[in-house]
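#data-curation
PF: Archiving a pair of folding outputs for the training set. Convention for this channel: one message per protein, sequence first, structure tokens after, nothing in between. First:
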Amino acid sequence: MVIDTILKYGYNDHMSAERIFYDKTLFPEGLIVEMVIWKLPKPTKDRPHGLKYRLFYGRDGLRIVGYDNERGKGDHKHINEVEVPYKFVTVEKLVADFLADIERIKHEKFN
């Protein structure tokens, strides 16, 4: 039963994915920026570009900005508690959009 659940959620696909990018930065005030991108063995319905990714900005237990494409949801982003669809174009644009949202949030906080 547990194996069926694991296979249903694509554990095997994820385990055979190749991590193509990883970066984590810890800031003195406790904030974290972490970006992980994997190349999947083949595109899927939820990930037609053949990539799985998780980009995180926040601190332990608090996501301020997040981009991901978990199974069943496809590409989307989180700004504080709000989740909205995200149109994936390229990895470069994904990272640029993520970093721009971080800067926007920082700017809003101090203005």
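PF: Second:
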Amino acid sequence: MAARTLFAAIALLACAGPFACATQGTMYRWGGYDQTLYDHYKNPQSRDEFVARLSGIIEAAEKSGQVVPPGCYAEYGWALYEGGRTAEAIVYFEKEKKQWPESSALMDKLIRNAARANPAAHAAVPASAAEENK
């Protein structure tokens, strides 16, 4: 009886083995986004490398037709904003808002703040955000 149980267990493992190692696909093209954030928060002095890595993650996801992970557009937009590139930052805040509607309230505030910091970038602000500003 023990031999029969042992044989059944081995047969079950042999059948399930190939499925246990299969990788599951994800909804997003992470591209090292989590590690990039971790590295930046651990070592904020390497800001230029951080911005370049975020840009690469976004570019790779968009080229492959995959979804950019939540927060990536916003994080890149914030990095651009900190670097004084407010018009470009607004574009990425808008992308985050469009991709992740639940971030609309925060993105609208960031867009308004960026528009105030650089009035020339105000043209990139959507009408909805301008209305809320009044």
